[in-house]
Amino acid sequence: MLNIQNRQEGTASIVTIQGKVNFEVTAQLRDVIRDTVTTQQPKLLVINLEGVNFIDSSGLGLLVAARNSIDKNNGKLHLCGLPPQVKKTFDQTNLTNYFSIFATEQDALRGA
Amino acid sequence: MGKGVVLVVDDEVQIRDILAFYLKRAGYQVLLAEHGLAALSEIAKVQPDLILSDLRMPEMPGDDLCLKLKGDPKTRDIYFILVSAIDGAASKIGGLNLGADDMIAKPFHAQEVMAKVESAFRLIAMQKEIKRQNLELTRYQERMTAELSLAAQLQMGLLPAVPGRAVGLCYTHRYLPAEGIGGDIYSIVPVPDGGTALLIADVSGHGVTAALISAMVKTSFEAQVRLGGTPLDWANGMNRDLAQTTLAEQFATAFLAHLDPKDGLFRYVVAGHERPILIPRGACTGSKLPIQLPGKGFMLGIDEALTFSEEQTTLAIGDRLILFTDGLVEVEREDRSLLGQEGLIRLCATLPANAEQAADQIIEQVCTFNAPQPFLDDVTLVVIDRCG
Predict the structure, then answer these.
(1) For residue range B125-174, what is the model confidence (pLDDT) as tens digits?
(2) How many residue contacts between A and B have a Cβ separation below 8 Å?
(3) B279: domain range?
(4) Which of A111, B118, B189, B314 shows the greatest Cβ crowding within 10 Å of its Cβ?
């Protein structure tokens, strides 16, 4: 159901997620993010949500926890490619103002 | 303690003697019977772990004995080895089809029989262990189920009794937790200033953890309300409570409000929750034009430093509010479409004036829309009518 890919570009790590992010898959996603943060210790973690068609509250919780753990390591978390349905969820929960959100992966990597 | 009990069934006394000699020497307790009927009466006295039975015997042959034992739940777990003079694959398959666990061809070497017996006892020991573990698991599961159902009852007890009435409001609810116990909660309580406070909240996740946090959310809300203040104060206080006590990924979306019954002023905070639907004159007959209340804000419990904002509107007598959690509208159908909040607003345009009927109609229509699998998440629906 959920497809997660993970690659590095310079000092940045990029996690690309495709599918439905809900309670059933958060454990899988949590492991990938935790491994990425602990083993690669990236200065910048980009999570690309382009292929995500749905995210529920546990998925949002996971992203918030990811931001907090990266903050502790003095890194940054950038989200990018939010599809309209996901954008709506972020707007409703005001998380648009909590995360640094970019239109494309290139923008997120540049931090612009 | 012996290694186990073996029943040898054979009409030839020499074979019984040879097998008994080897088995006893290897440490087994040995029972003897000269045919199937005698074996049955032995088994009635002491149940063996394993039976070595000849096929052709007077009174009751080995195949009949095997069928009888394997057909009885009390004896079907006894390991059954059929010893048969008829060699060849056909006979072996026939024996195994009867339910025998293994076959030995006659004439046999005593060592071969002993090797099969030893291997059978290893299997028997494993089976016994699996059975024991199964029993333990079943008991554990029964205990957990009983505890969960008790917890579910307790959680239901945390909800307001319906149909209910508070100053300026009448309300009812439909509460459908996904796993018997869930993370949805709502509360309607009086405020020291004479008004009424209300909350609906949805804790991230499911099951026991979410249920525990939901109880905490309710307690935190009611404690805030007792302090007086506004919904904004309550949201800030609850956010602090939750941020300090829950783990990294645990949050609650919530809608908190205060109704002043004197002038119908309705002040509220949307904390990442689905905005309620307001149906002007919804509790009256006539056509309806439902709208969704404006507002947005963070979920509770993410970060103590986050701020919230308060909105306000006026509720006239006869106006209706529909409060709900996302489980009601976010069920993906096979064609990948969702009812969504827009769909729920459409359903609200045709609700009857009676609140109970309205609640039933929403659940019914949402179930029909979501069919065949109506709900996956906890679902809470609260119908609140402004009354005098």
Answers:
(1) 998 899 999 999 999 999 998 988 888 888 888 899 999 999 999 999 99
(2) 65
(3) 159-386
(4) B189
As for how many domains chain B has, the answer is 2
Cα separation, A1 vs A15, in Å, equals 16
In chain A, which residues have their Cβ closer than 8 Å to the Cβ of B205? Answer: 23, 57-58, 61
Q: What is the pLDDT of residue B199?
A: 97
Question: What DSSP character marks residue B281?
Answer: T
**Residue corresponding to tokens 């008991």:** B139
Structure tokens at B151: 């917890």
Q: Which residues contact B34 (CB under 8 A, 6 or more apart)?
A: B9, B10, B11, B13, B16, B57
Across residues A20-34, what is the average pLDDT?
Answer: 86
Alpha-carbon distance of A52 to A61, in angstroms, equals 16
Contact B179, B203 (CB under 8 A): no
> How large is the angle between the packed helices A57-72 and A26-35, nearest 10 degrees?
10
- What is the token pair recorded at B347? 């359903």
Predicted complex: ipTM over 0.85? no
Same domain, B118 and B164: no
B137, part of any domain: no
User: What is the CATH classification number for the domain harbouring A35?
Assistant: 3.30.750.24
Q: What is the pLDDT of residue A23?
A: 76
Instruction: For B24-51, write each residue's pLDDT tens digit.
Output: 999 999 999 999 999 999 999 999 999 9
Task: Count the domains in chain A.
Answer: 1
Structural contact between residues B282 and B349, judged by C-beta atoms closer than 8 angstroms: no
> Taking CB atoms and an 8 Å cutoff, what residues of chain B touch A57?
202, 204-205, 251, 253, 272, 299, 326
* Residue B297 touches partner A, C-beta closer than 8 Å: yes
The phi, psi pair for B256, rounded to 5°, reads: -120, 140
Taking CA–CA distances from B301, the nearest residue in chain A reads: A61
The answer to whether residue B142 is domain-embedded is no
Assign residue B46 a region: left if phi > 0, alpha if psi is -120 to 50, beta otherwise?
Answer: beta
User: Is B183 in the same domain as B123?
Assistant: no
pLDDT band for position B94 (cuts 50, 70, 90): low
Contact by Cβ (8 Å): B197, B266: no
User: What is the span of the domain harbouring residue A73?
Assistant: 3-110
The pLDDT-based confidence of B205 (bands split at 50, 70, 90) is confident
Residue type, B206: H
Instruction: Provide the token pair at B378.
Output: 């906890």
Contact A68 B248 (CB under 8 A): yes
